[in-house]
Design brief:
23 helices; five-stranded mixed β-sheet; three-stranded antiparallel β-sheet; 14 strands; alpha+beta; flat; about 525 residues
Length: about 525
């Protein structure tokens, strides 16, 4: 790698090189997130001739995954045979300049508001030599002003037609300050892609380290086959979302590493190259799809909000990669035992990577139709008393495990015994629509009874039943109403792990008795799943 040397690019050169496809932003860069204040300060600095920092570019013929459009403006491919300069530092500044000059409308990555970058104004009545605050603003000032978009895109005839003659010299001066501004650049040549990623990691001014997925996106791009890990992940993500689940991008790289290396330590994932990934990619996709189909069809977990640990995606995908065919009845039994033991030992609360590595060996045994051994890290230490008044939280893995069991029992509507439809958006927090506190909060508050939000008070019901029928009624009242409409109500309640109304204290509205009895049923179901 040659020693990088500082140089400059003019405003015209910089913009032309972007539009010709000679300057690219690699995919491992963060999305455009600058707010309008930072953009205004940048533009103000150019007007004043202040330094705005150095753009660090990597010049290479290596093709890697890059941003194909910037703020909605499609960027051309690099002409064949030409070198490309990838932006390693200065993406946010470069993007801010580009969207302002092009007059783009961009959705803010933070506030989600649409920002119209045509609407940056220079206050023409404030002298930058005596007024030290920014004379550039994203709101039209009361004083005479010019949009920067117009300043950089209109002709002098337009200025003469739209502004007083007295302002023409100032407009000309500001236009020239932009068009003659020399942007400081350092161009790195003859560096490998590994060097470039390392350079970016060290100089990255955002303070955030690159994720393994972002690094692998850069390292595995293949121009010949058009393999782009970022785009491939988007395809998998869309397929998984159609099944009402999510897959974090790091799990995709972990799955590949599991297939190739039988582990997913960071150093082994970073050692993967495109020749490891591209030949097996179709199997990666199929294994991940089979995993989520298994969660839904065999484990009866209908959506991602109920999956206690997303890390479980990785060993299950490994199984489907190795097994080739659908699991046999015995294999399915062993997979379910592994799943529930993992959930209720809470083993993935920490040291996930090392535990996954040992689990790949367990999956090898299940592929061979053999029962794995489960040592101390799978120890089931949960006691019934631990659940008795356990607070309900949608983010807690143990709570999710219980909800997953309730969902796997395929609960039916109290009203008419039809299947309860669960929705991810209705399960985000403890007061969401699919979660019903069997003893309603308002009812318990009227009775001055605390601890309404415990997991044993939660049932999964249809949003309409929860919102429109039950409300704040006493359980004895609303269950009596349901009994008149649903002749199979006793059977319905078994699918919610709720037994005889009298024994469970429902007819007497006895909250303590209900929690004790239901906790016992939930705990017995957990023990049954883990084989305790």
């Amino acid at each position: 790698m040659n020693n990088p040397k500082p140089t400059t690019k003019s405003y015209v050169e910089l913009l032309q090189d972007i539009k010709k496809g000679l300057i690219k932003i690699p995919k491992f860069q963060r999305e455009f997130i600058w707010d309008t204040k930072k953009t205004a300060e940048l533009l103000d600095s150019i007007i004043r001739g202040y330094p705005i920092g150095t753009f660090i570019l990597w010049k290479t013929r290596t093709q890697m995954s890059s941003v194909k459009d910037l703020a909605g403006v499609k960027l051309p491919s690099t002409p064949k045979g030409d070198s490309v300069e990838y932006v390693l530092d200065g993406q946010q500044r470069l993007a801010s300049l580009f969207v302002t000059i092009e007059g783009c409308s961009v959705q803010s990555a933070t506030s989600k508001k649409i920002i119209d970058y045509k609407n940056f104004y220079i206050n023409l009545e404030r002298d930058p030599d005596v007024y030290y605050e920014s004379i550039v603003t994203d709101k039209k000032p009361k004083e005479k002003s010019v949009r920067i978009y117009d300043l950089l895109n209109e002709t002098m005839n337009w200025f003469v037609s739209n502004y007083d003659k007295s302002l023409i010299p100032k407009l000309t001066e500001y236009q020239q300050k932009f068009k003659t501004y020399e942007f400081s650049t350092i161009v790195i040549t003859d560096a490998t892609i590994e060097n470039a990623v390392e350079i970016f990691s060290r100089i990255n001014t955002s303070g955030k380290k690159l994720t393994i997925f972002e690094i692998m996106t850069a390292l595995t791009y293949d121009e010949k086959t058009k393999f782009d890990l970022f785009e491939k992940y988007k395809d998998i993500k869309n397929k998984v979302e159609q099944r009402d689940f999510e897959i974090p991008n790091q799990h995709v790289v972990q799955v590949v590493s599991a297939f190739v290396n039988k582990n997913c330590k960071p150093k082994d994932m970073l050692a993967l190259r495109k020749n490891d990934i591209i030949p097996i990619w179709s199997k990666v996709e199929k294994s991940i799809e089979h995993t989520f189909d298994y969660f839904v069809q065999e484990l009866k977990i209908p959506l991602g909000r109920l999956l206690p640990y997303t890390a479980l995606i990785v060993p299950f995908a490994y199984f489907f990669y190795k097994n080739k065919n659908s699991p046999t009845q015995n294999q399915s039994k062993l997979l379910q035992e592994y799943f529930w033991k993992s959930v209720f030992s809470e083993r993935f609360n920490q040291a996930v990577i090392s535990k996954l590595e040992t689990d790949f060996k367990r999956m090898d045994l299940i592929v061979a139709n053999k029962k794995p051994k489960y040592p101390g890290e799978f120890r089931f230490e949960l006691k019934e008393g631990d659940l008795l008044w356990k607070k309900f939280s949608t983010g807690n893995a143990l709570n999710k495990g219980i909800l997953a069991i309730l969902a796997s029992l395929q609960p039916k509507s109290f009203k008419n015994n039809t299947s309860v439809i669960l929705n991810n958006s209705y399960m985000q927090q403890s007061n969401s629509k699919n979660y019903h506190h069997f003893f309603p909060k308002a009812f318990l508050e009227r009775k001055n009874i605390p601890n309404y939000n415990v997991v044993s008070n939660i049932t999964l019901i249809s949003a309409a039943d929860n919102q429109n029928i039950i409300k704040d009624k006493a359980p004895s009242k609303y269950m009596s109403d349901f009994a008149k409409k649903n002749s199979k109500l006793n059977k319905t309640m078994k699918g919610h792990l709720i037994g005889d109304f009298k024994k469970f204290g429902i007819l007497d509205d006895d909250y303590t008795k209900f929690i004790e009895k239901r906790t016992k049923l939930i705990f017995e179901e957990i023990k049954n799943r883990v084989g305790a």
